[in-house]
Amino acid sequence: MKTTKIIFGLAVCSWLTGCASPQYPNYFKEDQIIRPYTLASGDRLRIIVFGQNDLSNSYGVDGSGNIAMPLIGTVHAEGRTTAQLSQDITAKLRNGLLRDPKVSAEVDTYRPFFILGEVGKAGQYPFVNGMTVETAVAIAGGFAPHAQRTTANITRLIDGKPVKATVPINQAVLPGDNITITGSLL
How far is the C-alpha of 125 from the C-alpha of 107, rounded, in Å? Predict the structure, then answer.
């Protein structure tokens, strides 16, 4: 009888553990969202060099992670914040071109996100600030009939390395994320 109670107790504990909310990796928590944004290929920047209309323009970060500006040539942007990029451009302009350059850099258009799997129309879409996996699915035409609707897989570059995690549907999406909606097991 005692053995039966122990087995029953273990079964109940096992069942309750199975009903618990899933745990998600720490590297996809809010600290990733509040980190300063770092630039990558596909971002479009608005660079303003005060008093220099010929240098002030919109520049795209190319596949090598660089932008190409008149007079100073290529400037490495990938992995840099807009503040760091502004400092780099200022330093290059100060090097024999302008006496006291004032440079401002801001993201004009973020790199796109990608969504695959069980959605209406998989593909590449423009990033929208504040989006979640759920809004990304809506942008991609909604869930397909057999889609898993509570979690998704996201592959994200973190410190230059791709990291994949299963996340809840309300997970924040970042520019450049690859989202995969899997099929349900029904």
Answer: 17
